[in-house]
């Protein structure tokens, strides 16, 4: 944990306040370390403390009213990673529920939009790739399984000039 104290507060009237707060803080087991850095306006001291008991108030609440800035650092990286994973899993389940609900409500609209996009793709691809006029009429044929090969051959013979790569294969 880093405590950042304004030098004016440390040197003058709040100096005694700092000493009182420091002694309150030191009642719990911790290792004392001297000043880490001292600049023109700020002084930083470092305190290493074991895990805080459950009933104890956070350090920030102890030092905030007197304009002391407290930064707590947790060196247990694995716990942070586990906590982040749990938060991400919770967020994922929440988003998944909303997404599934949205899909159930709007499925018919999605399927109609998908079909329209497919039809638009066929139109644009035919007009650009094969050079068909813009006012052509598209046709969708579904033949019996027995006659599908015959229909493919017939269409290839009629419209093979539109796609020379199809006849080569």
TrEMBL record:
From what superkingdom does this record's organism come?
Eukaryota
Q: Which GO terms describe its cellular component?
A: lysosomal membrane; vacuolar proton-transporting V-type ATPase, V1 domain
Query: Which keywords are on file for this protein?
Result: Hydrogen ion transport, Ion transport, Transport
- Molecular-function annotations in GO: proton-transporting ATPase activity, rotational mechanism
One Pfam family cited in the UniProt record for this chain: V-ATPase_C
Function description? Subunit of the V1 complex of vacuolar(H+)-ATPase (V-ATPase), a multisubunit enzyme composed of a peripheral complex (V1) that hydrolyzes ATP and a membrane integral complex (V0) that translocates protons. V-ATPase is responsible for acidifying and maintaining the pH of intracellular compartments and in some cell types, is targeted to the plasma membrane, where it is responsible for acidifying the extracellular environment. Subunit C is necessary for the assembly of the catalytic sector of the enzyme and is likely to have a specific function in its catalytic activity.
Q: Which family does it belong to?
A: Belongs to the V-ATPase C subunit family.
What assembly does the database describe for this protein?
A: V-ATPase is a heteromultimeric enzyme made up of two complexes: the ATP-hydrolytic V1 complex and the proton translocation V0 complex. The V1 complex consists of three catalytic AB heterodimers that form a heterohexamer, three peripheral stalks each consisting of EG heterodimers, one central rotor including subunits D and F, and the regulatory subunits C and H. The proton translocation complex V0 consists of the proton transport subunit a, a ring of proteolipid subunits c9c'', rotary subunit d, subunits e and f, and two accessory subunits.
* Protein name stated in the entry: V-type proton ATPase subunit C
- Write down the species: Tetraodon nigroviridis
């Amino acid at each position: 944990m880093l405590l950042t104290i304004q030098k004016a507060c440390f040197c003058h009237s709040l100096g005694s306040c700092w000493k009182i707060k420091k002694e309150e803080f030191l009642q719990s087991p911790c290792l004392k370390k001297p000043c880490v850095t001292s600049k023109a306006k700020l002084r930083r001291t470092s305190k290493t403390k074991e895990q805080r008991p459950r009933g104890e108030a956070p350090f920030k609440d102890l030092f905030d009213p007197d304009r002391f800035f407290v930064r707590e650092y947790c060196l247990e990286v694995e716990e942070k990673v586990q906590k982040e994973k749990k938060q991400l899993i919770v967020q994922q389940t929440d988003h998944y529920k909303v997404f599934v609900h949205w899909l159930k409500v709007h499925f018919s609209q999605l399927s109609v939009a998908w079909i329209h996009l497919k039809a638009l793709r066929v139109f644009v691809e035919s007009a650009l790739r094969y050079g068909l006029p813009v006012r052509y009429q598209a046709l969708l044929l579904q033949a019996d399984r027995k006659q599908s090969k015959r229909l493919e051959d017939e269409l290839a013979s009629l419209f093979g000039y539109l796609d020379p790569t199809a006849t080569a294969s």
